[in-house]
Each structure stands twice: as C-alpha cells, then as structure tokens.
Amino acid sequence: MNKMPFPVRIGCWLVLMQLIVFSCKKDEPDPYVPVPDPPAPTAFDINSIKDTYPEVAPLISSPSWGPYNVHDPSIIKADDYYYCYSTDVGYGISDAALTPGLQVRRSKDLIQWQFVGWVFQGAPAMGANFIRQNGGTPNRLVWAPYVLKVGAEYRLYYSLASNNAARSVIGLATASSPQGPWTEKGIVVNSFTTSGAMTNAIDPTVIVDQQGQHHMYFGSAFDGIYTLKLDAATGLAQTSGDRGRRIAQRGFTNGSINGNIEAPEIIYNQEQGKYYLFISYDWLLTKYNVRVGRSASPEGPFLDFNGRDINLVEDHGPMILAPYQFTGHSGWQGTAHCAVFQENGQYYIAHQGRPGIDPYYMDLHVRKMFWTQSGWPVVSPERYAGEDNAAVAQADLAGEWEQIKLNHRVVPGFEREQSSPDFQAATPLTLAASGTFNNSTSNTWTYTAPWLELKYSDGTLDKVYVQKGRDWENKKNTIVFTGLNNTGTAVWGKKK
Questions:
Q1: pLDDT tens digits, 135-157
Q2: How far is CA 111 from CA 271, 346, 493, in A?
Q3: Nearest Cα to 110, choosing from 140, 80, 137, 132?
Q4: CA 441 → CA 217, 233, 263, 353, 448, distances in Å?
Q5: Distance (Å, rounded) from C-alpha 320 to C-alpha 352?
Q6: Coil, helix or strand at residue 55
Q7: Peptide bond just before 181 cis, omega within 30 deg
Q8: In whole angstroms, what separates CA 359 from the centre of its chain?
Q9: Strand pairing report for 461-471 and 476-485
Q10: What's the whole-number mean pLDDT along residues 410-434?
C-alpha cells in the first residue's frame, strides 16, 4: 500500500480542516451585514375592547376571551398580576358544551386581560359527591368563586348547585400559586334542608377581621344573606354543620318579594374604620344592581344610608351601581355581582356588564371607586382606562355634560317579572362658567377639587367627586364625576 510522505499528509490535513471549517460557517451571517431586529410587539389598543365579541365567542377561541365571558368575578393581586376567577359561562355556548371548572384570567393593568385556563378539570369532586350523597344531581358548571390569600396559601371558595332548588354547597380548594394546582379541602356550608328558612349556599365572600377572625358571607334568594364564622387555620366552618345566621334581606310589595338578593362582597376600609357589605339586587340579566351597608363590626348590624338595619324586611340604599345608558349607546345592564379590592389605597369595583344591544354577552368591567366625605363608596360612571387621579381644574368644568341619576323602580319578582333592565338614561347638564347650571340662576355650582357641589332650586344637593376618565362610548378622554345627593341617590356625569 503506497503512503504519502508525512509533510504532504500534514499539508493535506490542514487544507481539509479549512474546508470543513468553511463549510460549517457558510450559513452564518456575514459579520459585516447588520441583522435586522425582530419586529416590535404590537402595542395594545384599548379601542380593541368591544361590547360584543362574536369573532372570539366560541369555546375553541377561549385563549382570546380576555375580558369576555366574565360573570361573578373575584379578583386578587399576586406579584405583578391581578388574577380574576369567574363562573363557567360562554356566549352562545350551551351548558352541556361549556368547559366546567371556573375560568381564570390575569392582567397587569386591569385593562388588558389574558385568559389562562380553568381552576378545576370538571366539577369539584368533593362538592359533587356531597350533593349526590344527599339525593341530588350536581350541576356540570361551577359558579361564583371567591379567592383570598392566607399566609402562603391561596384559598378559593366555589359554589356548586344542583337540580334541586336551594340545595347547593360552598367548597374550599387551596394552592400555593394563584394558577394552581388546586386541592380540595372540604365542604364549608350547604343548604340541604327540608324545613326552616335557609338561603341558597352559593356566592361566598370572606374577610379576616381586625382581630384575626375569619367570616364568610353568602347567599342567594330564599332567605337573604348569611354570615358564618370560619376556622382560621383550615378555612372551613368553625363549627361543623353550622349554617350561620341571616344579616340582610329584601322588602315585599303586596305579598311578593321585591326581587332577588344575592352575591355579597365584604371589605374593611381602614381609613373609615368600618366594614362594608356590598349586595346585588334583582335579576342578573336585566335590573341587576349593587347596594351597600356598613358596620363597625363584621357581625353587623350593617346599616343603610338612612341608618336602617339591612336585615329589616325592606329595600335598602345607597344603590351605587345599576343599569345605565349614555347617549348614543345601547346601555349596560346586569351590572352587579361585584368584586371590590384596593391597590396602594385606590379602590376598584369589578362586575359583569351586559350590552343592551345583546344582553347575552358578558364583559368584565373594572371601575374606580371613591369615598364620600361621609364615608360611603361611590363608583365611576366609566370603566377604568389607566387614568390618574390628578386634580381637574375648575376652568375645565364649564360646558356640556351628560348626567345620570341612579333612581330605581321596584318590580317585585324574578326573571319573568323583571324583563326590562330599567336603564337609567342620561340627561343634559350645562355648567356655565358663571357658576350656574342648566340655564337657571337658581341652580348654582361650586368646586373645591375634587368635590363639585350642584345646588338645585328645589333644595336638592348633589355632591360629586370629579376625576379624569375615558368616554368609552365615544372612545376619547374626558372628565367624569360620581357621588351621592342628599337623599342617597347616586349621581353620575360625563363631559361631552
């Protein structure tokens, strides 16, 4: 066998290695040719949020649901995100086809929401088994969650109803992360009873009072809103089998109840030194509205605007959020079952909103909430859009406005009787630079930022909080106000 001399072999080897190196590098970019940067992500356009969402309504489009298909929200802040947990619903999707398990979304700014999945894979087993063991058939879908953090543990309370009216359970699941996985811990309370008054065991909310005692508030229809003490260590009922006691109910007209009462939400305001209990009145698809009572104690009694116990057999105010309609828009109805939370001293209220053009769509609304000088919460007439709370100059107030007064028409009954949303419609308001309004020298206004006072010739006094806001109906920035008048009626305004 012939062999090449050693120096020749070395030379060939070097040439071969150069060829190999060249061939390996031939696909790399020329270092002298600039590589273009990847395209910048498209900036979020707030105008992309619509009232209706047919293009993303189907279940297959759930990754794009964002603020859509939201009902009965509960919101908690965890690190950089707000997490929203809500009832199993979907526009145009039958109950049999919907994915059960409680929907989860998250957002960094309370405006742009990302759908991230479900809490459970199906109905929670403990709740479903309890219902079966007591002769019922559990619903496929899960309703009205509430979430809070205790130490390092996230506690999520869920509502599971059945085929039998008012035979429901509220269960507890826990996790170390707001995205789960969630582990069921047990049944907190049930409404399986054959005698005596009892509310429906759904719609939980929980507060840890100033002494560290945990309290749950819950209920829908039947016998009003109940409160129940919880074991702080477990999150379950402090006394097994306890169903709590009633703390709120509704009035009657000619022997018929004035409408539904449900969906409590409880907070403590340190500055006011009071507990605030928010409650939803009336039918969820139409007249749904939010009332509030307050108390120095989590045990109550909770008092209304007139100092009346909300456990008396009568309707109570103030009503701070209700179906409304600004000019040129179909209006928003079903505006209740709220979540109330705060971040860095700013309070927010979140709830479902159903557009009047088609009230089967369900959108998540988040609004700023403020406090009157007498200690009552009031809600912005427009959804939050990232605006700050910088003071509005007096010179900017003069001009044309739309005003809404949240009056209420009692319609006893439920779905069948409350077929109308009873929209509270906007009326014109003109503020003159001279300090009068509506072209009458007998009507006067004064302003000490942020409070605007409108004094009517008939003695009515509207005292409202002025702030910057977004005109969602006309897609532009504006000025808004919210407050109560001297009779406890909520007053809203939006400058044109």
A1: 999 999 999 999 999 999 999 99
A2: 27, 15, 22
A3: 80
A4: 49, 63, 45, 39, 20
A5: 15
A6: helix
A7: yes
A8: 17
A9: antiparallel
A10: 98
